[in-house]
Every structure is written in structure tokens, then in C-alpha cells.
Design goal:
The complex is a heterodimer of chains A (about 800) and B (about 260). Chain A has about 800 residues and is α+β, with helices and mostly antiparallel strands. Chain A is built from 20 helices and 30 strands. In chain A, the strands form eight sheets. A seven-stranded mixed sheet of chain A has the order 3-5-1-12-9-10-11, with helices on both faces. A five-stranded mixed sheet of chain A has the order 7-15-14-13-8, with helices on both faces. In chain A, helix 9 packs parallel to helix 18, helix 14 runs parallel beside helix 15 and helix 17 packs across helix 18. The longest helix of chain A has 28 residues. Chain A starts with 13 loop residues before the first helix and ends with a helix. Chain B is an alpha+beta fold and about 260 residues long. Chain B folds into three domains: about 45 residues, Uridine Diphospho-n-acetylenolpyruvylglucosamine Reductase, domain 2; about 110 residues, 2-Layer Sandwich (Uridine Diphospho-n-acetylenolpyruvylglucosamine Reductase, domain 3), CATH 3.30.465.10; about 90 residues, CO dehydrogenase flavoprotein, C-terminal domain (Enolase-like, domain 1). Classes of the chains: A alpha+beta (about 800), B alpha+beta (about 260). The interface between A and B is medium-sized, with 24 and 21 residues.
């Protein structure tokens, strides 16, 4: 059999998705089902003085109405922050109460206040209009940089400051800066984004009054974690009687990691009324109430020697947590961000502070890249600026400062095991024809366009993550992963993974790994995920971890299968287990032509005796069946890296930016399926381009989300993107046997800096994200462009 | 969406008869249905007018093109007669929304709705159109009254729109990157006796630009536009574009429209 790993195999899951046969939560309808509709706050900040649902309760078709009082009475716990951060002063971060239905106050537009459960969705919506909530309006704080000087929006959280985090040695960094020949300074805003998964969130609670089992169908990236949180913290139902199913999920991007109020409420409501309760988000609810991403305000300084060597870095960031602290809200702008601001440069001294602040906006949390796009934006913008200020070629400047010996212990946190940064930059420079850029710039000028080029040489910490490390810095769980391989008696294989595929193509990638390991064709391998009743406990999919951590667990389970298979084969082939080789799906007795296929061994494991002609007694001490489980906890993160080079043309008259050339060279370590990886990179780049040029979650001063639909929130579209050239270099990861580093977030991490560096190169001065036509036009006009002023 | 009765009329008379203050006409539904789904609008009855004979289709004469109210944007875009007689009108139709919208949405619906960022109203003003309704003829100049507001009375139904064929014309749109509606759309048409320039997307509702018309009447060229001063005073300002930017883009689009003519 040809190697499956490394082959461009078309996605097994494409057929069902492309023909509309996917089965998402919204596609599931249960008998006797009811429909939930949420009453949400229309105000950014208010005291709730009264919730009168008497009319709604009497409305046609209404089964029940639940409010903050109901959940309080039934002792349903609030939503939690799952990874807590410690401030500089040694104190724990401050988390406000976050009830699943607001009781006394609302803190953002879209905050959940009550839920109406009715026979039909229309009846639920009609009745929701009759729920009369009396509010006493309070002045909201919206802007990130204003939060600490505003009155407290949560009782007992002074200056709206959740945490004041520091990483690095302040003294050493100041000392480095005192020796600098030049200090480059930059103020940056990382714009707030709305994740916009194609499938809106959805949940169905289904309580079985007979068995006392509760099933929750929910569009989640991590059903086991949801169950754990909802059992242990929200007190919805005991874990052993609680099943969570996350069937096909249409995109997550981090926005489906959280346990949301709607999940808890439909599960709770189903128990209360003894019938299934279904809720599917409307797109406007997704805009308002999915966790948002990014939203940083940053000041950065880079200390240089006159020869261009970087000797120090200072970064001070304010991160907007929004109204509450969600599951990964605190770790995202701290441990997933601060260590990464170093980029791939050998920087001997650095210090990064992050203030996490509360505002009256939707809560923020992990969004594709989670902290790493923000960090990459800081370092890649400032190194570009530094190269310009000291008059050095930006590629040369980067190379001069690259880390070039591995493993490399960075001055903040990470110990980077492997990489070759010159290799991917050189390849990208070559592929993008970097050396002839100035010719292209002149050609564009002849057409009346301003052309610019931007580089972004990024790295990321993926494969989250080593449990010992993450738990020592506040994670509420270890981030190992599980796998179980079940050989069926007929020789096909069910592979249970604790990860979850919501667009990552696990059905194909994992089947390729198992196919190669066990010599089974991928048609005979089924990858099973997304159901807490099926496989062992698993941690889910985020942080580009599925392959490096989950894939490794699968490999280890395969190894156990082979080890057992050798014992059984030895008995059948009349040899010793150590004399059995396993290759291409066959157990072969050394120095003989005697062999058994893995299918025959599996059959024997299930029929350990004599049956007709088949004689397959198991060796003594070997149990029947062929099922093996493995848990893998990596020793370190993995560190993918790469180089993105972007070229843009800016229309001087209108300020419009057009991407004209985009080159990517990534080092993802071992690539299992280049076709799938390219899809991940394309999508990631598109999302990064979205942040750089188009997307922006905009709240007005009163806290209304004015970009709450696709009429006003600009998603990147096919016609906004050029052909993307993709290539690879490879230095395998040493922290997992596959050598895989992770690819899911890379595009989104690198692209914003590459695009913005290109725009800034084109127009000649700073522009903030998103670089909309008007913003660029204003800069051009200010810079004295006659065309822009005409 | 709140429940409603669905009724189909087979004549304009019947449609008028069925209509009341609680009803509305349904053509392509490209604006109406989303508004109802969002509960921004609710009616007791929707009166489908797509089955009415004689209010769909394109008729061309040497002086004018008459387009039936329920003619879709796709039909106008694909019409050879329109392409030959007023190519800018076909270009405009081809640039509305996306293929789904163009296959469902109708010219009558677009005009009756008078969205401040819709394309067709600018064509009506620039091409000195006459709106033929179930009751009367209305000059485009008197038809558009305000944001989402027209001269139509309750129960009055647009039957066709008659565009005058100009000597030269062009339409250029600067789309909102999110919705792809016009942030600014400029339609310029040169007739024997006058130049008309209509602007959509930039103001409360579609309007004619005296400044552009005056300059282009004197000298129908881009250099004339360069000298025009467009005031930003009455223009829209929103999260996508300030009034000042819209004023600037009006000139850029006017030049582009002229270059297409």
C-alpha cells in the first residue's frame, strides 16, 4: 500500500457536506420538542428592576418562561472562567458573577435575561415580545482604553480591572533599553472581531424522565469539557447521567469552546418541563452573543543597537474582556499572547504587561489564533518599522535577528524545539520574487496605483498543551488527549478521538494516519467524535492541537493494537512475539513466508477458539477483543513558523486596497495531507485579511452594536483575495512522534501583519486595522496626495 | 416572521381591491421578506403581484424603454434591447445584489421601496423616467419623496417604468464592502437638451446633483467634474463612510460613470 501520510487525499467528508447531507444540531428534531427564544437586553448597561412575564406565560402555545429568579431558585450555577490568571501583585484575577439568566443587572446588548419555551418558535417569539423587563439605565463604558478610568461596572472590581499581568524581567529589560542606540516605538490597536462561524450556535436539551438521563445536543468544539463544566459548575445534571452530542459543527474558530448560557438554559428547561427544548441562534444573536475576539490597545517599544541587533522589547497591552470573563478569556490575552510577542527573534530581554478590563460589550474569548495573531501583529509591525527607521532591508533585518540554534529557550516562556527560519524566509523571498519588487512598484505606479510589500515571519505555540505546564499557570484542566481504536470482528476499524472536527477534516487526516499505521484502507476506518457516550473523555479541538496531541494519542493506541496483534500472531504462526514483524497490515514471522493479515488477527481476537476450519486460540493471558485506548500528554508545545509576503495596490483616489500577490511558506513539521493543510492556510489567510482590511465589531457610544449583520459587518469574500502561493519547509516537531506542529491557525496569525505592513509600505504612513478605503484615503490626503484631495 | 395570509392577484384591479392598510404587495420579496423575518415589518396579507399579466417584460422604442414592474434585474441585465439602447441600465441591473437577488428582485419593487442605497432610483432620475401606476403617470422627479418614501398612495401599484433613451449615459457605483449596496452611485445621462446626474447611496434618498449637471451641461468631460465642488453638508455619515468621503467619492464615481458613457 502506498503511503497515505503525505498524500493529497480528497476529504472523505466533502461528499456529505457539499450535497447538503451534513447533520447539524439544527437538523435534529425530537418528538414532542418545544422551542426556546431568549429575551435579551437591548441596553448596554442597566439595572433590572422588574421582569414581568405574566402576559407571556398566558400567550398561545407557551409552555413556560424562565428568568434569573428561576435559575437562582433551582441553584443553577453561573458561567465560569476556566483558566485564571494571577496579577503582578500576586492576587487572583477578579471575575464578576455571570448568571445564565441575568438577575439584577445586564452588562451588554444581547445579555440573556429570560427564556420563553413554547410549542412553536413563532409562539415563543410572540410571547417573548410580551415579557416586560423594566430597566434603570446606567451609563456604559465601551472603549478598551477608557475602562480603567470609568466607574466600576461590577461590584467590587475596582477600575474595571480583572487582572494586571506581567511576564518577563522588568529590570533586565530596562537595563537593555538603557544600552540601546535606538528605540522604536509603536501604538497599535488590534480591532475587535466577530467569529462568524457558518453554522450559528444551536442547542437542544432532551431530558429523559424515565431514565433520568439528560442529553444535550450542542454545536461545540469540546463536548466532554462542556459536560464537565455543566456538571461541576452549572450543576445542571450529574456527569454520569449526562450525555453531550456535538454532531456536524459548521465552524468554530474558538467561538464554540465556551459553555454558553443558552446551552445551560435549554438543558435546565428540558429538565423542568420534561420535554426536549430546542434553540437555534439567529444570525443577529450570533453577532451579539457569540464570544468576540481580539480588542487590544498596545504600546510597544523595541531597543536596537546601531547594527540592527535587537536587545530588548517592552509591550504594554490593555485587553478588553467585554462584560464578563468567559472560559479562556483571561489566558488568551496573557499566556497565549505575552510569550509570543518575542516572535522568532533572539531577544535577550523582554517584558510584557497586560491589563484585562471589563466593559459593557460582548465578552471576548479565543478566536482563531487566540492571542498569537495579536502578538504577531505587535512584533511583525515593530520589526518592520525598526528596519525602516535604521534603513535596513526588512528581510535582512529579520534574518539578522532570527533565532538560529535549536532548542532555543526564549527569555519569556517557550523553549522552541525546532525550526529553520532562514529556510522559510528564503523560500518565500524566492517564490514572491522579492528582489524585483521595485519594478513591480513602478509598473503599478504607471497605472496610478500605489504598490506596497509586507512581510510577516511568524511563529506560534500550538498543540495545546502539556498538562503540567498549563495547570501550573492556571488552567482548570490538563490538556492531554485520548484515543481509542476498536477493531470490529469483520476487520474494519472505529477510531474514537477526544478531539472534535468542525471543519478540520479529521475524518480524512486521522484515517490516513491509522491507515498507514495499521495497513487498513481508509474506507474501512471510521473516525468517531463529538459524543460523550461513545469515546473516552477528550479535550476537544482548539489551539491547533488535534493532530499534534490527538493524532499522537491515535498513534499510541495503534502501537498497542500492533503489540497485542503480535502476541496473537505469534501463537497462530507458531513463533515468538519478538519474531513477528508488522508491515503493511501483515504480521510476518521472521525468516519465513508465514503471515497473517491484521483482519485475520482481529477476527481471531473475537473468536478465540475453533470454529469450523478456523483455529485461532488466543495465547495464554491475552484477553479477547481488539480494543486499545491511549492518552497522550505532550512534553512541550509545538512551534510552527513561517513567512508570509503580501503585495497590495492602493487606489490613490478612493483609498481602496487590493491584494495582488500573496505568498506563504510554512513549516508545519510533518504534513499529513497537503491538500487539507492548504485549505486551512487559505481559510486562515482569508480570515487574517478580513481583520486587516474589512472586519470590525463596532459599538457606538451607547453600547449598541452597529455592525450586527452582514449589511454592516464586512466579511472577506472570494473577490477580495488573490491566488495564494503556498509552499512548505519542514523541521519536524520533537515533542510528538508524528513530528506534527499544527496548521489550523497559522494563516490568521501571520496575515494581518503581512497585509498591514504592505498597506503601510504603499501609503507611507501608519494606518490602523481595518484599513478601510476611507481610512487609507484620509491618510493619503493628509500626506498630500493630490488625487486623494481632488 | 409573523403569520400572514398569502393572496395572489391576477390583475392590477384585483390587487388594488385586495389591498388595505394592513396589507402589502409582494413582488420579488428581496427586501420585504428579510424585513418580515426580522420582525421589522408585519402584515395581515401579502398580495402576490407576480401573477398579474402585462406588468412584466421590456418594450423598446426609439425614444424610450418601458420595463414592466415585475421584470427581474436579471432580465434587464440580460436584455439585448436594453444593452443596445441604454447600456448603462443593463450594467446597473447586472450590479445589483447577487445572482439570487437578481433572479428574484424586480424593478418595481426596488423603486417602490426607495432604499437610499438602491441602484434603480438613480436610473429613474437620470433617465427622466415616467412611473406608470395603476392610477396615473408620475415623473421620476416627483416620485421619490424621502427615505423609503415615494409618491405612491396606498393600494397604488407600479405597472411599468419608462426610461428616456439618452445620447450617452453611464453608471458607476462605489459599493459598501459589507452589503455591496451603493455607498455612492452616480448615474449620468446626456440628452439633447440637458445633462442629468443622479446620486444614490450618499444622501437620505436619491437626488440630482445641480453642481454636476451644471458643470457637465457646459462641458461634458471629466475635467469639468474635477472643478466641481460637492458639498458634504446634506450627505450621510455612517460607520462605512463619512459625509466628507462620500462627497469625494461622488466626484470619483462621476468621472468613472462618464468614462463608461
Amino acid at each position: 500500500m502506498a503511503n497515505l501520510v503525505g498524500a493529497r487525499i480528497e476529504r472523505k467528508e466533502d461528499k456529505k457536506f457539499l450535497t447538503g447531507k451534513g447533520r447539524y444540531t439544527a437538523d435534529i428534531n425530537l418528538s414532542n420538542q418545544t422551542y426556546a427564544y431568549f429575551v435579551r437586553s437591548p441596553h448596554a448597561r442597566a439595572k433590572i428592576t422588574k421582569v414581568d412575564h405574566s402576559k407571556a406565560k398566558k400567550a398561545p402555545g407557551v409552555v413556560d418562561v424562565f428568568t434569573g429568579d428561576s435559575v437562582t431558585k433551582d441553584k443553577i450555577g453561573g458561567l465560569i472562567c476556566g483558566w485564571k490568571i494571577v496579577s503582578q501583585d500576586g492576587k487572583d484575577m477578579k471575575c464578576p458573577p455571570h448568571p445564565v439568566l441575568a438577575k439584577d443587572v445586564v452588562n451588554f446588548v444581547g445579555d440573556h435575561v429570560a427564556v420563553v419555551v413554547a410549542e412553536t418558535l413563532e409562539q415563543a417569539k410572540n410571547a417573548a415580545e410580551l415579557v416586560n423587563v423594566s430597566y434603570k439605565l446606567l451609563k456604559p463604558v465601551i472603549k478598551t482604553e477608557k475602562a480603567t478610568s470609568f466607574e466600576n461596572i461590577h461590584e467590587g472590581i475596582d477600575n474595571n480591572l480583572s487582572f494586571d499581568f506581567i511576564l518577563g524581567d522588568k529590570g533586565k529589560t530596562n537595563e537593555a533599553f538603557s544600552k540601546a542606540d535606538k528605540v522604536v516605538k509603536l501604538d497599535l490597536v488590534n480591532n475587535r472581531l466577530i467569529p462568524n462561524a457558518m453554522e450559528p450556535r444551536a442547542a437542544i436539551g432532551d431530558y429523559n424522565t424515565s431514565s433520568d438521563e439528560l442529553t444535550l445536543y450542542t454545536a461545540s468544539q469540546n463536548p466532554h469539557l462542556d459536560r464537565l463544566i455543566m456538571s461541576a459548575f452549572n450543576a445542571v445534571h450529574p456527569e454520569h447521567k449526562f450525555r453531550i452530542v456535538s454532531p456536524d459543527v459548521g465552524g468554530g474558530f474558538g467561538s464554540k469552546i465556551n459553555v454558553y448560557a443558552e446551552d445551560v438554559v435549554v438543558a435546565y428547561a428540558s429538565k423542568k418541563i420534561g420535554r426536549p427544548v430546542k434553540w437555534v441562534a439567529e444570525r443577529s444573536e450570533s453577532f451579539m452573543s457569540d464570544n468576540h475576539g481580539r480588542d487590544h490597545v498596545t504600546h510597544a517599544e523595541l531597543a536596537l543597537k546601531s547594527d540592527g541587533k535587537i536587545i530588548g522589547l517592552k509591550v504594554d497591552t490593555i485587553a478588553n474582556l467585554g462584560a464578563y470573563s468567559l472560559v479562556l478569556a483571561a489566558v488568551t490575552p496573557t499566556y497565549l499572547y505575552a510569550p509570543l510577542v518575542l516572535g522568532i527573534y533572539d531577544i535577550p530581554a523582554a517584558c510584557c504587561t497586560v491589563k484585562g478590563v471589563y466593559t459593557n460589550t460582548a465578552p471576548t474569548d479565543a478566536y482563531r489564533g487566540a492571542g498569537r495573531p495579536e502578538a504577531t501583529y505587535v512584533i511583525e509591525r515593530i520589526v518592520t518599522e525598526a528596519a525602516k527607521e535604521i534603513g535596513m532591508d526588512q528581510a535582512e533585518f529579520r534574518k539578522k535577528n532570527f533565532i538560529n540554534k535549536f532548542p532555543h529557550q526564549q527569555c519569556l516562556v517557550h523553549n522552541i524545539d525546532s525550526g529553520d527560519y532562514n529556510a522559510h524566509l528564503d523560500k518565500a523571498l524566492e517564490l514572491s520574487d522579492y528582489k524585483n519588487f521595485e519594478n513591480r512598484r513602478s509598473q503599478s505606479a504607471k497605472k496610478g496605483k500605489l504598490r506596497g510589500i509586507g512581510l510577516s515571519t511568524y511563529f506560534e505555540a500550538c498543540g495545546v498543551a502539556p498538562s503540567a505546564v498549563v495547570m501550573s499557570i492556571g488552567a482548570g484542566v490538563g490538556l492531554w488527549e485520548s484515543a481509542e481504536i476498536r477493531f470490529n470482528p469483520t476487520g474494519n476499524v472505529s477510531v474514537f478521538t477526544g478531539t472534535h472536527s468542525h471543519g478540520q477534516s479529521h475524518d480524512t487526516t486521522f484515517a490516513q494516519i491509522v491507515g498507514d499505521k495499521l495497513g487498513v484502507s481508509i474506507e474501512n476506518i471510521d473516525i468517531v467524535h463529538g459524543d460523550t457516550d461513545k469515546g473516552p473523555f477528550g479535550m476537544g479541538t482548539y489551539g491547533s492541537r488535534s493532530l499534534a496531541v490527538g493524532g499522537t494519542a491515535i498513534v499510541k493506541a495503534c502501537d498497542k493494537i500492533i503489540a497485542k496483534g503480535k502476541k496473537v500472531a505469534a501463537k497462530m504462526l507458531e513463533g515468538k512475539p519478538e519474531d513477528i514483524d508488522f508491515k503493511g497490515g501483515e504480521f510476518i514471522l521472521k525468516n519465513s513466508n508465514k503471515k497473517k493479515t491484521i483482519g485475520e488477527i482481529a477476527f481471531a481476537c473475537y473468536l478465540p477458539g475453533t470454529f469450523g476450519d478456523v483455529k485461532s486460540p488466543l495465547p495464554e493471558g491475552v484477553e479477547p477483543g481488539l480494543i486499545e485506548t491511549s492518552f497522550f500528554d505532550p512534553s512541550n508545545f509545538s512551534f510552527p513558523s513561517g513567512s508570509h509576503i503580501c503585495e497590495v495596490e492602493v487606489d490613490e483616489e478612493t483609498g481602496e486596497t487590493k491584494l495582488v500577490k500573496y505568498t506563504v511558506v510554512d513549516d508545519f513539521g510533518t504534513v499529513i495531507n497537503p491538500l487539507i493543510v492548504e485549505g486551512q492556510v487559505h481559510g486562515g489567510v482569508a480570515q487574517g485579511v478580513g481583520q486587516a482590511l474589512y472586519e470590525n465589531a463596532h459599538y457606538d457610544e451607547s453600547g449598541q452594536l452597529t455592525s450586527a449583520s452582514y449589511m454592516d459587518y464586512t466579511m472577506p469574500r472570494a473577490d477580495n483575495l488573490p491566488q495564494i502561493t503556498i509552499d512548505y519547509t519542514c523541521t519536524p516537531a520533537t515533542s510528538n512522534p508524528l513530528g506534527a506542529k499544527g496548521c489550523g491557525e497559522a494563516g490568521t496569525i501571520a496575515a494581518p501583519a503581512a497585509v498591514m505592513n504592505a498597506v503601510i509600505d504603499a501609503v507611507g504612513s501608519d494606518v490602523s486595522m481595518p484599513a478601510t478605503a476611507e481610512k487609507v484615503w484620509k491618510v493619503l490626503k493628509k500626506n498630500g496626495s493630490k488625487k486623494a484631495a481632488a | 416572521m409573523k403569520n400572514f395570509n398569502f393572496k395572489s392577484a391576477t390583475s392590477t384591479k384585483e390587487a388594488t381591491k385586495l389591498s388595505s392598510v394592513k396589507t402589502t404587495f409582494l413582488a420579488g420579496g428581496m427586501t420585504l421578506i428579510p424585513a418580515m423575518k426580522l420582525r421589522l415589518a408585519a402584515y395581515s396579507d401579502l398580495i402576490n403581484i407576480k401573477k398579474i399579466k402585462g406588468i412584466s417584460g421590456i418594450k423598446v422604442s426609439s425614444k424610450s424603454i418601458r420595463i414592466g414592474a415585475t421584470t427581474t434585474h436579471a432580465e434587464v441585465a440580460a436584455s439585448k434591447e436594453v444593452g443596445k439602447s441604454i447600456p448603462s441600465l443593463a450594467v446597473l441591473a447586472e450590479g445589483i445584489g447577487d445572482p439570487q437577488v437578481r433572479n428574484r428582485g424586480t424593478i418595481g419593487g426596488s423603486i417602490a421601496n426607495n432604499d437610499p442605497a438602491a441602484d434603480y432610483p438613480s436610473a429613474c432620475l437620470a433617465l427622466n423616467a415616467i412611473i406608470h401606476t395603476s392610477k396615473r403617470k408620475i415623473a421620476a422627479d416627483k416620485f421619490f419623496k424621502g427615505m423609503f418614501e415615494t409618491d405612491l398612495k396606498k393600494g397604488e401599484l407600479i405597472e411599468s417604468i419608462e426610461f428616456q433613451v439618452p445620447e450617452k449615459s453611464g453608471y458607476a457605483k462605489f459599493p459598501n464592502p459589507a452589503s455591496r449596496y451603493a455607498i455612492v452611485g452616480v448615474y449620468i445621462a446626456k440628452f439633447k437638451n440637458e445633462v442629468r446626474a443622479a446620486i444614490t447611496g450618499a444622501g437620505n434618498y436619491v437626488f440630482r446633483s445641480n453642481e454636476l449637471e451644471k458643470a457637465l451641461s457646459a462641458n461634458f468631460s471629466t475635467s469639468a467634474i474635477d472643478k466641481v465642488n460637492i458639498s458634504s453638508k446634506e450627505l450621510n455619515s455612517d460607520i462605512h463612510a463619512s459625509a466628507e468621503y462620500r462627497a469625494h467619492i461622488i466626484k470619483v464615481m462621476a468621472k468613472k460613470a462618464l468614462s463608461f458613457s
